[in-house]
Amino acid sequence: MFLNVHEGPCGIGTRMREDGGLSPGMILSNEPGFYEDGSFGIRIESLQLVVKKQTLYNFHDRVFVTFDPISLVPIQRKLIDKALLTGEEVTWLNEYHQTCLERVGVVMKEQNRHELYQWLVENCTPV
Q1: Within 13 A of 73's CA, how many CA atoms are on the CB side?
Q2: Which of 14, 21, 92, 108 could form a disulfide with 117 if both were Cys (CB 3.0 to 4.6 A apart)?
Q3: Helices 87-110 & 114-123 angle (0-180, nearest 10)
Q4: 3-state secondary structure the chain
Q5: What is the CB neighbour count within 10 angstroms for residue 124?
């Protein structure tokens, strides 16, 4: 028996799982990527905290969940071709960068890390 990056206890996939699903407080990694067979690949990894999601309606007292990013690093803009993004994807990216700036920027300011804060501001500007 061994452990690897895709071990449980929680996960999302196409296989049926008997682990009870996702619960608030769990942490998962989100690893979207693109791989050109035999050539190259790129993957952006981030950790996501499972949090309770308030819904408009109550579905038999079931808890619904969503994700809140906890590893906040700007996505390298040189890797982005905005012409290939939908409006929804641009909105998500800009909101993610705003979250990075708000949460990490505060800490940088508190620690008087002005150069790092300026780097963060430059790398979190809307696309």
Answers
A1: 6
A2: 108
A3: 170
A4: CCCCCCCCCCCCCCCCCCCCCCCCCCEEEECCEEEECCCEEEECCEEEEEEEECCCCCCCCCCEEEEEECCCCCCCHHHCCHHHCCHHHHHHHHHHHHHHHHHHHHHHHHCCCHHHHHHHHHHCCCC
A5: 21
**pTM assigned to the model:** 0.76
How does residue 108 score in pLDDT terms, banded at 50, 70 and 90? Answer: very high
Q: Assess whether pLDDT exceeds 90 at residue 34.
A: no
**Mean predicted confidence (pLDDT) in 57-76:** 88
pLDDT reading at 98 higher than 90: yes
Residue 109, CB-side half-sphere exposure with 13 Å CA sphere: 7
Q: What burial class does residue 54 get, using C-beta atoms within 10 Å of its C-beta: 0-12 exposed, 13-18 middle, 19+ buried?
A: exposed
Q: Is 88 exposed, middle or buried (0-12, 13-18, 19+ CB in 10 A)?
A: exposed
Sheet holding 46-53, edge to edge: 27-30, 46-53, 64-69
